[in-house]
Amino acid sequence: MSAPVKKPKSFGIWGNTDKTRFWKLLDPIMEWAEEKKISPFITKRIREKIGNESNYKFNVIESAEDFYKIDFLLTLGGDGTMLSAARAVGHRKTPILGIHLGELGFMAEVTVDEMFSRLDMVLAGSYGLQRRMVLKAEIVNGEGLKVFYALNDFVIDRGKSNRIITMRLLANDRFVSDYKADGLIVATPTGSTAYSLSVGGPIVMPRLKAMVVSPISPHTLTLRPIVLPDDRNLEISFPKDDLKEIAFAVDGQVSEYLAPNAKIFIQRAPFEIRMIDFEDSNYFQTLRRKMGWGKRGE
């Protein structure tokens, strides 16, 4: 738990507007903000959907630079909502507090029932900031350089093909392995409990600075997930592969299709995402409650 921080005077609202529950909570949040005299900012998407129906005063987040104007960002949805908010905030250091409206909500761990008590704690300055590592990927794909950032993971897979692909991994220019598999996941500690976990990767506490490399259905009994320090520069290429399209996904969303001669360079990003947490937050309790960690079958 980090040291106490300043009391906020403004906050942003970032939500999954496709969820009915989000709209049921918006007015109570606005009412809370008015009562506590804290200035709310909403996204342009929320503004467009409410039209002129709101009776509350608010500002609109017109561009990413407006994140500098808010003291924290409240996200309402699932982990996907929180990931999209983190990508939008990027290097701007705006702390994020996630409220989960879905079934799992491992990252957005605050429940609706405790939302206002947690917001009151944030308003009083009774919270800390947990810094989460971000990964940066640079892709050379025959059309110049493209850059992506991920809070959870980068995933390379065979896309629409039914064939396995061959991926060569270098770390600081040293050969690690050739992976013949359905794909490869490079995850942060935050992402270690996402896709990487489902293919047998380890659970890595978010405070650690490391990268987890996990093969997807490797065609061998000897390749296992590995954990690398965050100072490694990874290079992934596709030797002897003639697949027309290799899919590259950022935090669960396909962002690029790669040619066989493409190269991917992955390293720790020069910034971190700041998550709001509390003195009584318990990572292992969250694992038990939301993933059944440590429980025996009945």
Considering the chains and any ligands shown, give keywords for the structure.
globular, 2 domains, single chain, 6 helices, alpha+beta, Tumour Suppressor Smad4, 17 strands, 6-stranded antiparallel beta sheet
Report on this structure.
- This protein is of the alpha+beta class and 298 residues long.
- It has two domains: 10-127 and 278-291, Rossmann fold (3-Layer(aba) Sandwich), CATH 3.40.50; 134-270, Probable inorganic polyphosphate/atp-NAD kinase, domain 2 (Tumour Suppressor Smad4).
- Helix content is 19%, strand content 37%.
- The protein is built from six helices and 17 strands.
- It has helices at 20-36, 44-50, 79-89, 115-123, 195-198, 283-291, and strands spanning 10-15, 39-43, 59-61, 73-77, 96-100, 128-140, 145-150, 153-157, 165-171, 174-181, 183-187, 210-216, 226-229, 234-237, 246-250, 253-258, 263-277.
- Strands 7-6-17-14-9-10 form a six-stranded antiparallel β-sheet, covered by helices on one side. Strands 13-12-11-8-15-16 form a six-stranded antiparallel β-sheet, with no helix packed on it.
- A hairpin with a 4-residue loop joins strand 6 and strand 7 (145-150).
- The longest helix has 17 residues, at 20-36.
- The two termini are 35 Å apart.
Short description, anyone?
Helices cover 19% and strands 37% of the residues.
